[in-house]
Amino acid sequence: MTESHPKITKAVIPAAGLGTRFLPATKATPKEMLPVVDKPAIQYVVEEAVGAGLNDVLMITGRNKRPLEDHFDRNYELESALARKGDESRLAKVQESSDLATMHYVRQGDPRGLGHAVLCAAPHVGREPFAVLLGDDLIDPRDPLLQRMVEIQEQHGGSVVALMEVAPEQVHLYGCAAVKPTGDSDVVEVTGLVEKPEPADAPSNYAIIGRYVLDPHIFDILRKTEPGRGGEIQLTDALQQLAATYQSAADAAGKIGGPVHGVVFQGRRYDTGDRGDYLRAIVRLACEREDLGPDFKAWLRSYVTEEM
Ligand code: UTP
Question: Which CATH number fits domain 10-273: 3.40.640.10, 3.90.550.10, 1.10.8.60, 3.90.1570.30?
Answer without folding.
Answer: 3.90.550.10
